[in-house]
Design a protein that fits this description.
GMP Synthetase, Chain A, domain 3; 3 domains; Rossmann fold; seven-stranded mixed beta sheet; globular; alpha/beta; 727 residues; 36 strands
């Protein structure tokens, strides 16, 4: 956005944003004092502005923008929106570890937690034995049978092709659900582990569950599962909202030695049926209905339509239990009735080898069957370790991430919180409205995870106004590309706490690139590969760019990652992730499919999927890069999608922008003017050769159930429309 330098801002400029004259004068005086000490455009200038001027979330957002963009007017790319404080950094999980053992790990190169964090990340890749053994000790992970080593990499030829990611924790046995329930230095029986509230009950006290109560509920469900007579390792599906009961069922299935099949509660019957078929699930847990506000959405009826196996049906809050069930199905009370005599008796967990499946999750999939991705006992450790290191989750934290067990962030949330001694905060309802914002305040959430579309909704509706989010220590963001302005707004809701961007995949069990509380964080950017992960940006010939050199290209991953998948249920794992990939130091790289940019300041930007990259006039560019520019062109634009569409008669791709407008009524003249504005912005910001050939208005963008834009669907629709126009 157009902006003045900080030195040029006047009292009248501030007042014009809707701030009173007296307040504007006070702010201007404080701004002048900060400039006098730190200069008009340094990171320290912004840090002081954020803490002493913008410490009121109710100030007009335009004032935040004026000061942020004014401070970094001449800074260049990736200005730091948050800078770690040395004292606070030393108190993080990683900071405390490095203060104790930094010289042991890094030798004389160790300086302090902030300066040496990048070196420690590289150490985690080059010394996996030391790193992972240390992290498991820090997290109080308990193996029933300890591993023979951390990583067995020198495998014979046949095993190397089937296990290109190496063999992790060979010989070990563990039950991650049991680890979630252990009493250790992180936790006592009386500690609260789950906090929740039902939508429309926003003025009632929070509901809480202690570790002792959670253990007893899980034990009872585990006994009831065993009474069904299923073979160990049988698949048991969960299709219900992520509430307290769902967490109990999830952990009970794993504790008893069965495999969870994760199904999102938003799926239609056909999608449910597909997942049940692929996983061969024997039982499904579901709810009778889903309550969202004053609406009741059917769920059990979808299960019946999907011709699901035996169902255990939990009544939604306040819905009663009068629904007639199919023959062979069980009510929740009926399911537990036969084991009430053992209530309170400890269940002996199934201790199984680390490679045993615990959870089957599915890629969102836009065509054909979704990939069925098994998680093992190890995957839970990867998820929790990411939370320990990158989000600094620890005892006393309250972690909230609106999600569902059908997506990887649901199981991630369970392990990230409970394996680190933290509490999980669950809101039973829509996270879009002020009820959720009040829940975050009342629960005193310390880490709030989200997807960017949530932030967009909160900002547009101003639904967080009046609520105190000062307990938040950091935000987490995943799932889609984020926006600088929207995340500047988000940080301002919590007195400029950092946003940790987090990108990975179901097949990774967590992230491969993220941020850290020991590094300066730039908006809509990643600051580091995840611990234990090595990234490669491939040039046009498929060769990795030199380390620490700026560039853009398809992302590949180092093959040795703890927790990463080694198999798929319905596809050839090697063909999907490794076939045709280049070698690096004798090891085949792992395919991911994203386009990634490393900037001159060492930050990373995701530019969408490789198949969302287009060639405009011989120049490769990602859809996300174009969309970032187009989204900022006008206030009536809600979102855009950029697609390269080949002309019907052949020839180079033409750039088409699909736009969703806040005011959906638009004329051909409006779209023509918008096309001119898009061209001007793109040619100024990206490349003078880029040209938008057409702008089309759509009511909404087609998305997968996990909220990813399906540009391929748009591309096909537009290509077909163009072809029909020729007939």
């Amino acid at each position: 956005m157009a902006c003045k330098s900080l030195c040029s801002i006047t009292v009248s400029d501030i007042e014009s944003l809707g701030i009173s004259r007296d307040a504007a004068s006070t702010f201007h005086q404080r701004l002048t004092e900060i400039i006098g000490v730190h200069g008009a455009g340094s990171p320290a200038t912004w840090q002081n502005i954020a803490s002493s001027i913008l410490n009121n979330p109710e100030l007009p957002f335009s004032f935040h923008q004026m000061l942020y963009y004014g401070c970094f007017k001449d800074y260049g790319p990736d200005p730091p929106a948050w800078i770690p404080d040395p004292k606070s950094a030393a108190l993080t999980n990683v900071g405390r570890l490095l203060e104790r053992r930094g010289k042991e790990f890094l030798g004389s190169a160790y300086k302090d937690p902030i300066t040496s964090f990048s070196d420690f990340q590289k150490f985690s890749v080059s010394n996996p034995e030391v790193y992972w053994e240390t992290v498991f000790e820090e997290m109080n992970i308990s193996f029933s049978k300890p591993p023979e080593c951390i990583l067995r990499d020198n495998l014979p030829g046949e095993d190397r092709s089937s296990l290109p990611s190496g063999q992790w924790l060979p010989g070990a046995s563990i039950n991650p659900a049991q680890n979630c329930l252990n009493v250790n230095g992180n936790r006592s029986l009386n500690d609260t582990v789950i906090i929740w509230r039902d939508e429309l009950h926003d003025d009632l006290p929070l509901q809480r569950m202690t570790l002792q109560e959670l253990r007893q509920e899980i034990w009872l469900v585990a006994y009831a599962l065993e009474s069904l007579g299923l073979e160990k390792g049988s698949a048991i599906a969960i299709d219900m909202p992520m509430n307290c009961k769902a967490v109990v069922i999830y952990l009970a299935i794993i504790l008893a030695g069965y495999v969870v099949v994760s199904i999102a509660d938003s799926f239609a019957a056909r999608e449910i049926s597909t997942r049940l078929r692929i996983s061969n699930a024997k039982v499904i847990f579901t709810q009778d209905i889903i309550i969202r506000g004053d609406k009741s959405l059917p769920l059990y009826s979808r299960i019946l339509e999907a011709q699901a196996p035996m169902a255990v049906v939990i009544p939604a809050r306040g819905s009663g239990s009068s629904m007639k069930l199919r023959s062979g199905d069980h009510s929740w009370c009926g399911f537990l009735e036969g084991v009430n005599s053992v209530k309170g008796k400890e269940f002996i967990p199934a201790e199984q080898p680390v490679e045993t499946f615990t959870n089957i999750l599915f890629s969102s999939g836009t065509t054909g069957d979704p990939k069925a991705i098994p998680w093992t006992n190890i995957t839970a450790l990867k998820a929790a370790a990411d939370a320990w290191c990158h989000f600094d989750i620890r005892k006393g934290d309250i972690v909230c991430w609106p999600t569902n067990l059908g997506w990887m962030m649901g199981p991630w949330l369970v392990f990230a919180s409970l394996l680190n001694g933290a509490s999980m905060a669950l809101y039973n309802g829509s996270p879009l409205g002020p009820g959720f914002a009040k829940f975050v305040q009342d629960a005193k959430v310390t880490m709030l995870g989200l997807v960017p579309s949530l932030v967009r909704s909160w900002k547009n509706a101003n639904s967080t106004s009046g609520y105190d989010w000062s307990s938040i220590r950091c935000f987490g963001s995943s799932g889609e590309a984020s926006s600088v302005d929207e995340y500047l707004w988000l940080m301002g809701r919590a007195h400029y706490k950092p946003v940790i961007e987090y990108c990975g995949g179901t097949e990774i069990g967590g992230g491969f690139i993220t941020g850290s509380l020991l590094q300066a964080q730039s908006l809509a950017a990643f600051s580091t590969p995840a611990m234990g992960c090595e990234l490669f940006i491939l040039d046009d010939d498929g060769h990795p760019l030199p380390d620490n050199v700026a560039g853009i290209g398809e992302l590949a991953l180092g093959s040795l990652m703890l927790g990463a998948s080694n198999t798929l249920l319905n596809a050839d794992h090697y063909d999907v992730y490794f076939k045709g990939m280049p070698l690096w130091n004798g090891k085949v790289l792992r395919r991911h499919g994203d386009i990634l940019e490393r900037t001159v300041r060492g930050y990373y930007h995701a530019h969408g999927r490789a198949d969302d990259t287009m060639n405009l006039g011989g120049i490769k560019v990602s859809s996300v890069e174009i969309e970032r520019v187009c989204n900022g062109v006008g206030s009536n634009i809600l979102e855009t999608a950029a697609i390269g569409v080949p002309p019907s008669g052949g020839g180079p791709e033409q750039l088409v922008i699909a736009v969703v407008l806040k005011n959906s009524s638009s004329t051909a003249e409006d779209l023509h003017k918008l096309r001119i504005s898009f061209n001007s912005a793109l040619q100024k910001s990206l490349n003078p050769l880029f040209k938008v050939s057409q702008v089309v208005s759509v009511p909404s963008l087609p998305r997968t159930a996990s909220n990813k834009v399906m540009r391929r669907v748009l591309r096909q629709q537009l290509a077909e429309h163009r072809q029909m126009s020729k007939i």
